[in-house]
Amino acid sequence: MNRFVEAQAPVWDDVQAELRAGHKTSHWMWFIFPQLAALGRSGTAKFYGLSDAEEAKAYLAHPVLGTRLVHCCELLLAVKDRSALDIFGGIDAMKLRSSLTLFDAVAPAQPVFRDCLERYFDGEPDGLTLGLLQGRGAAGAAPTR
Q1: What is the pLDDT of residues 45-104, one digit of tens each?
Q2: Per the count of CB atoms within 10 A, which of 54, 85, 100, 118 is most buried?
Q3: CA-based diameter of the chain, in Å?
Q4: Which residues contact 48 (CB under 8 A, 6 or more apart)?
Q5: Phi, psi of 61 (to 5 degrees)
């Protein structure tokens, strides 16, 4: 988990400010809202990608990373009148959906992930993420994130 803590340290204040403003302007998506590594295409996406549900649980259980992830979701829920596309742009909105799906699947008792999926994606989880978690792979699809 050190790779995430180290990556977040210099940008954490910016992340919070951008989420509060409802407009992401810098580069931090990979290590703030991580997704499964199998979905990543770039080296950065793969480096910060989580290997499986167990690593996602470890991320969420980490005293810094889990707290920050929940806090970021709470900040997102406080944004008014903006879509995920407005806040993140197309590629990062897709990464957000994947990340929320992953953490909702591994921590169903934590409502903030489901709440964000409801708010920003009409409650629809990312099918590729669910497929990977259920051992079906990405249904033959090439990684797009």
Answers
A1: 999 999 999 999 999 999 999 999 999 999 999 999 999 999 999 999 999 999 999 999
A2: 100
A3: 39
A4: 3, 4, 7, 30, 31, 34, 40
A5: -80, -15
For residue 50, what are the β-bridge partners?
Answer: 36
Q: What is the pLDDT of residues 113-134, one digit of tens each?
A: 999 999 999 999 999 999 999 9
Q: What is the DSSP letter of 31?
A: H
Task: Give which of 131, 44, 50 is closest to 141, Cα–Cα.
Answer: 131
3-state secondary structure 25-49: CCCCHHHHCCCEHHHCCCHHHHHHC
Domains and CATH numbers, the chain: 2-133 (1.25.40.380)
